[in-house]
Amino acid sequence: MKAVFVTEFGGVDKLRYEDLPVPELTAGQALVKIHSCGVNFIDIYFRTGLYPAVPPVVLGMEAAGVVEKVAEGVLDLQPGDRVAFGTVRGAYAEYAAIPASQLVKLPGVIDFPTAAASMLQGMTAHYLTHSTWPIKPGDTCLVHAAAGGAGQWIAAAAKSLGARVIGTTSTAAKAEAARAAGCDDVILYTEQDFAAETRRLTGGRGVDVVYDSVGASTWEGSLNSLRPRGMMVSFGNASGPVPPVAPLVLSQKGSIFLARPKLFDHCLTREELDGRASRVFEWLAAGTLKLHIDRVYPLADAAQAQTDLASRKTTGKLLLQP
Ligand code: NDP
């Protein structure tokens, strides 16, 4: 089968689009024939080695397809089932061996591209707005990179829960996409001091929660955008990882809270995974988020897809087609 993987960490030149054996199943797994897979920033972290993994590393954490076969003892899936996943690596390929416990059965109305565009970022938006900081009506939140894949989902989810949503984007065109996703206000953080602007927009109070996936370049400003006892949710590193932090900083910024969550730890049981995924499918059905699939690339062009994502050229979702 064709797959995209790295044997050495580095730039997109390290991506190899080559033949690999179809994965052998181990206990508890199902073999999925992949129809569509999502491109996410985490794929770049695994390519560069920011997130550790033992080579060869087949990239991609999110895909939708059809169960081809199951390992002995897997009782809740069978060949022909339409499924998707968003928490297991190995999606940039024609086939992936995935623990059955991490596969979600797709409702008939959800097609493969929609599922591959929604599992990872949609469930992320769900846990961030329901578990990390459960949004209450009247909360104000700051969502960085609000026109991006995860950002649009978070803005839409927070808005649907009754929050006032302030987004940041790099360009005016992206600001339009962020507004369409649910942002009430958008700050061009490449042109304005977003912390000062956030203070102005909140009458000096600051926001209840910051959802920060940008990392190094927004860290300080995000802390300065919070109200006393607000929540700083640092959940990504698009501009680079946040340097080590002294706990005393949290006191100095107003007794704020800091969370550094990831999706996998929020889909630990079948009930939790199915609960989050079905809520995402409900959001799609209700039009809470109008899914924006920006570009679809052949699997062979994974390097181009990652280049476009990293160079801030994209809004919404990118997909690969094996
Ligand atoms: P996006 O589609 O959001 O793309 C990243 C965006 O980040 C860019 O479009 C850009 O928006 C912004 N950005 C700001 N600074 C930079 C920079 N220096 N280089 C590149 N981009 C920059 O990607 P994803 O939706 O795939 O992921 C967004 C973030 O969310 C990532 O950090 C990812 O790791 C994180 N994430 C974390 C999860 C978790 O559970 N912890 C799960 C899912 C995603 P603009 O041009 O508007 O500035």
Largest sheet: 7 strands, mixed
Bound molecules: NADPH dihydro-nicotinamide-adenine-dinucleotide phosphate
**What is the name of the CATH architecture of the largest domain?**
Alpha-Beta Complex
Discrete helix count: 10
As for the number of domains, it is 2
Unreliably modeled segments: none
Instruction: Determine and state the CATH class of the largest domain.
Output: Alpha Beta
C-alpha geometry? globular
Class derived from helix and strand content = alpha/beta
Share of helix, binned:
25-40%
Quote the beta fraction.
25-35%
In short:
The protein has 322 residues and is of the alpha/beta class.
Q: What labels would you give this structure?
A:
16 strands, binds NADPH dihydro-nicotinamide-adenine-dinucleotide phosphate, Quinone Oxidoreductase, Chain A, domain 1, 322 residues, seven-stranded mixed sheet, six-stranded parallel sheet, single chain, alpha/beta, Rossmann fold, 2 domains
Outline the structure in words.
By secondary structure, this protein is α/β, with parallel strands linked by helices. Helices cover 29% and strands 26% of the residues. It contains ten helices and 16 strands. Strands 3, 5, 6, 7, 8, 15 and 16 form a seven-stranded mixed beta sheet that branches. α8 links the parallel β13 and β14. 49% of the residues are buried. The protein binds NADPH dihydro-nicotinamide-adenine-dinucleotide phosphate. The site of NADPH dihydro-nicotinamide-adenine-dinucleotide phosphate has 30 residues, from α1, α3, α4 and α10.
